[in-house]
Amino acid sequence: MREVMTKSMARNIFYGGSIFFIVIFLGMTVHSYWYIVNVSTDAKALTESVVRGKRIWEVKACINCHTIHGEGAYYAPEVGNVMTRWGVLDDPKAAFDTMKNWMNSQPSGTPGRRQMPQFNLTDEQIQDLTSFLIWVDKTDTQNWPPNDAG
Fold first, then answer.
1. Are 66 and 77 in contact (CB under 8 A)?
2. Which candidate, 3, 28, 96, 112, has a CA 20 to 30 Å from the CA of 86?
3. pTM, to two decimals
């Protein structure tokens, strides 16, 4: 082997390495897309109610205080697993009742506690928000959050 690298050797190493890592990057991108679409997202359970609930989440700016699976503000509790924590994940009627009671009791007025505003949601809006949070709770988060409290 030569002691000195020629320009053509350097060029070949550069182009070969670039092509190799571009192929790796594209492969990882395709795999990530496939995983999100086919494994981690429950697209079959994505109903109109879930979509409307997501819209309520956005319009009421819930993410300004709450997080879903770690995304959002850390002012208020994580809600990505709230239905599991409340024990109503597999009972949509109980989930709706619990959510309605919770939303209607806000702000609680408890001294020393952060106060959630009263959004005055209709029953249909609460049902849609409940459907969205049930759907979120059933997504494959690969064991996130690391504890039940979020």
1. yes
2. 112
3. 0.77
Q: How many domains does the chain have?
A: 2
- 50 and 122 both lie in a single domain: yes
Q: What CA–CA distances, in Å, run from 143 to 60, 96, 108, 150? A: 28, 25, 31, 11
Q: How far apart are CA 98 and CA 83, in angstroms?
A: 9
Examine the domain organization and report whether 123 and 138 are in the same domain.
Answer: yes
Which of these, 142, 145, 128, 139, lies nearest to 47 by C-alpha position? Answer: 128
Judged by DSSP in three states, 72 sits in strand
- According to DSSP, the residues that pair with 67 across neighbouring strands are 72, 78
Within 1-91, residue ranges assigned H as helices are 7-35, 48-59, 82-86
Domain holding 26, by residue range, is 1-40
Q: In this structure, are residues 42 and 135 in contact, taking their beta carbons and an 8 Å threshold? A: yes
| Average pLDDT for 110-138 | 92
Same domain, 63 and 134: yes
